[in-house]
Amino acid sequence: MPDISANVIVTAVTTLVAGAMGAILTNVLNARRSTHEKIWELRRASYGLILTELAEVESVLDELDRRILLDAASITNDVSNAYNRRTGTHFESARKAYTDSYLILSNRFIELFEVFLRSLDYVDDLSPSEGHKMFSAAIRAGRLKLLQQARSEMPLRGNLR
Predict the structure, then answer these.
(1) Residue 22 lies in a domain
(2) Which of 30, 94, 100, 132 could form a disulfide with 53 if both were Cys (CB 3.0 to 4.6 A apart)?
(3) What is the model's pTM?
(4) What's the total number of domains in the chain?
């Protein structure tokens, strides 16, 4: 009879230990997933703000391009300055969002944003027309790469980094 009680005790202890280990493992996995989800939510908001502001810059540039095509002579210094102020406001908002969110952005997004910023450093002695073309091309290409990177990090694709 003592052998049966020992077996019962061993079985009960084993069941309790296994149950506790299962509960601990489940909690650890849930906490880890929850942390990744929180990081993604912070990144998503930051990526959204950065990309929205860059899309606004691109929209202003598109508007200016249409105006140039319709009547290039209408682009006076005052008109050009107004467009520059609008693009500058949105671009500075994108840079501020980037700076404010730096610690939560993925390394790849940071790398792409830094390359993007360097692509905007062009020679100062370009004509306004050449400068506009280079700036527009850099904004369009950079925003697209950043958008692709942000999308590649979406948790639904299993690529949270």
Answers:
(1) no
(2) 94
(3) 0.74
(4) 1
